[in-house]
Write a structure and sequence with these properties.
By secondary structure, the chain is α+β, with helices and mostly antiparallel strands. The chain is built from one helix and four strands; from the N terminus they run βββαβ. It has one helix at residues 54-65, and strands at 15-19, 25-34, 40-51, 72-74. A four-stranded mixed β-sheet has the order 3-2-1-4. The longest helix has 12 residues, at 54-65. It is globular. The mean pLDDT is 89.
């Protein structure tokens, strides 16, 4: 079934808040598209800016990317 996303896959949340190798909090923006066979293709962009708290990273995503509650994953 080409072109139809696989409904059995759990979609990735578009924003990831995680600590980098130095222990700083970083925000990663993820964009999911689907190829012709319906498989997800995820492009990630990690912002250069470090954040003091997860709340400050969420606030930045809301202000600059229009993020909404429930769109965040943490690691």
């Amino acid at each position: 079934m080409g072109g139809i996303p696989d409904q059995t896959r759990t979609p990735m949340k578009p924003f990831l808040i995680a600590r980098d190798a130095e222990g700083r909090l970083r925000l990663t923006v993820r964009d999911t598209r689907y190829n012709g066979q319906g498989y997800p293709v995820v492009t990630t962009t990690t912002l250069e800016q470090a954040f003091e708290t997860p709340a400050s990273a969420r606030a930045h995503a809301k202000a600059h990317f229009g993020a909404e509650p429930g769109q965040f994953a943490t690691k």
